[in-house]
Inverse folding.
């Protein structure tokens, strides 16, 4: 491994962790603000920084910051007769697997930049999906040991529920993906994304959700259960078990469970985007379309406009205001035009020397890189939003209902999906 | 044996026993519920902030205007010369169901004024803010139009407001 490769890997690690760690705290804000919008409330808007006599609230965006400060300085409570070591370790066990999952996720297209091949993922494993399942199973330990180490009945009940629920749903989750693996013929996640380009049946994007609609639904439900959030929040079930497995946790240890939950939401969205929404692929287009300046321009317009729109909703600016609408359109236009220019400039101007020439000759690859990253981020943000709104729509299952759903509905349905997929594949090929 | 089995079944039976098959699918109902939720989300996100559905009032900055009839802490009205209009007739303390008004009358030199209060105290902790003292007063001497919520105090003695305190209270709509 040369030095350049090591540097590329390190940058990828920083990018993957940076993406997770910037979206996850945003989601703690998003969860409270978006649920407030859907429930006709205002939501948090009081945390403020006093600056030059004006208090700046940024539409409640300072709450993650205030929460972090609070958790760091809170007392780190430790139950007297608990297992000290396990009590200390289990928050890390809850966060680490959730973070590790993102290593195999392709965040963008593989590009060839300045003479180096850059895969936009930390590790392009042959057995990517198996790696995902391995780390998803590891995440059970964090919450199970947390309840065990707390010397608390509610904590123990919570951890029992966690272990039984997560293990049950892992079975279903694994089986739902077998259909997709059979269709694509690979466990490597970059292969799965590459496969999802172009169209199928003439009018649908060849995305996993259209190839395996039933499998996608089943996978979404079981992946939802893996995040341990409502309607599957039996392990914490505040109305039954007070706080479940993290009842004896306070301060930053609690904060890590809380953060881990949101990291799981983001990695769940990443997974779903990669497996069923084509990852960084544009709908209907092949991955070669990333070299077409026109496609890059249109895609750049849509994704930049969406990202500007997202930032504007973050800041709570009024979307009815014509100036705001103009800002969204202008942002999208600038992004689209810039990317199209970057992609097509060398074709127009011809080869140039110097730094400009270097940038221009790498322009199409650079445009592809930026564009694919933006497309993937856009998909993640929409899926996270969907995930959070679902969590606020549905009430919690009863324990026997969760088990019934997992073993009596999801598992047989996944098997049926497997058989039907096999038959269809036999007929087609 | 069969009987006990039946008992268990009724114990764990749930609503799905008498549901039709498409109700058992749950997915259409779930989608419908999410649709309602998303409708509210987008109406509040894209709509005008003023016309939104949130009826929230940002309290310390925004306040609801009280109605004109709202009864706050008491005040005693004054004559042009600054003395109280009260003639110590005891009508208010008689009318008071909480018995929180205590008056001691005194003679005055002014031939137009029969009596005046020497002591006029209201225990604002005992007061139930019924307004019967205001209705009973023949001289329009006591009013509850100050717009004051009786504040929290550290001792019971502080809640007993005397003549000077009651006279110094201002009315919200003009100081008669």
């Amino acid at each position: 491994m040369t030095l350049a490769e090591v540097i590329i890997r390190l940058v990828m690690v920083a990018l993957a962790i940076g993406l997770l760690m910037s979206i996850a705290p945003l989601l703690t804000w998003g969860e409270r603000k978006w649920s407030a919008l859907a429930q006709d409330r205002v939501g948090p808007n009081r945390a403020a920084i006093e600056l030059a006599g004006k208090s700046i609230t940024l539409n409640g965006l300072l709450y993650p910051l205030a929460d972090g400060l609070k958790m760091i300085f809170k007392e780190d409570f430790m139950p007297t007769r608990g297992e000290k070591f396990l009590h200390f370790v289990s928050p890390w066990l809850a966060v680490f697997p959730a973070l590790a999952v993102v290593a195999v996720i392709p965040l963008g297209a593989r590009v060839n930049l300045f003479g180096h091949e850059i895969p936009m993922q930390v590790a392009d494993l042959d057995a990517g999906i198996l790696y995902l399942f391995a780390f998803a199973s590891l995440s059970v330990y964090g919450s199970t040991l947390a309840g065990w180490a707390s010397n608390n009945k509610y904590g123990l009940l919570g951890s029992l529920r966690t272990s039984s629920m997560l293990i049950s749903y892992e079975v279903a989750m694994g089986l739902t993906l077998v259909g997709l693996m059979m269709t694509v013929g690979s466990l490597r996640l970059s292969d799965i994304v590459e496969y999802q380009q172009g169209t199928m049946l003439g009018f649908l994007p060849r995305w996993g959700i259209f190839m395996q609609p039933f499998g996608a639904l089943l996978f979404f439900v079981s992946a939802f259960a893996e995040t341990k959030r409502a309607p599957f929040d039996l392990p914490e079930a505040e109305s039954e078990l007070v706080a479940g497995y993290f009842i004896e946790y306070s301060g930053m240890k609690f904060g890590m469970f809380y953060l881990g939950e949101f990291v799981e939401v983001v990695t769940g969205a990443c997974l779903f985007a990669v497996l069923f929404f084509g990852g960084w692929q544009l709908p209907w287009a092949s991955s070669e379309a990333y070299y077409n300046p026109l496609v890059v321009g249109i895609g750049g317009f849509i994704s930049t406009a969406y990202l500007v729109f997202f930032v504007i909703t973050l800041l709570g600016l009024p979307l009815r205001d014509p100036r705001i609408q103009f800002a969204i359109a202008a942002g999208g236009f600038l992004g689209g035009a810039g990317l199209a220019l970057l992609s097509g400039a060398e074709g127009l101007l011809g080869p140039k020397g110097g730094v400009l020439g270097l940038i221009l000759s790498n322009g199409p690859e650079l445009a592809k890189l930026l564009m694919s990253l933006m497309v993937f981020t856009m998909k993640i943000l929409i899926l996270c939003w969907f995930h959070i709104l679902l969590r606020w729509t549905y009430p919690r299952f009863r324990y026997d209902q969760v088990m019934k759903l997992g073993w009596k509905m999801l598992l047989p349905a996944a098997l049926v999906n497997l058989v039907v997929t096999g038959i269809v594949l036999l007929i087609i090929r | 044996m069969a009987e006990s089995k039946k008992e268990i079944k009724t114990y764990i039976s749930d609503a799905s026993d008498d549901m039709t098959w498409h109700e058992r699918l749950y997915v259409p109902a779930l989608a419908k519920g999410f649709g309602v939720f998303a409708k509210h989300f987008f109406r509040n996100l894209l709509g005008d902030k003023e016309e939104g559905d949130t009826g929230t009032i940002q309290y310390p900055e925004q306040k609801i205007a009280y109605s004109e009839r709202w009864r706050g802490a008491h005040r005693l009205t004054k004559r042009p010369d600054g003395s109280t209009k009260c003639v110590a007739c005891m009508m208010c303390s008689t009318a008071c169901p909480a018995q929180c008004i205590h008056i001691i009358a005194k003679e005055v030199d002014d031939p137009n004024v029969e009596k005046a209060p020497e002591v006029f105290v209201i225990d604002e902790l005992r007061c139930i803010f019924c307004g019967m003292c205001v209705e009973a007063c023949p001289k329009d001497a006591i009013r509850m139009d100050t717009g004051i919520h009786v504040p929290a105090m550290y001792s019971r003695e502080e809640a007993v407001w005397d003549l000077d305190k009651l006279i110094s209270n201002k009315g919200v709509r003009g100081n008669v």
In short: The mean pLDDT of chain B is 82.
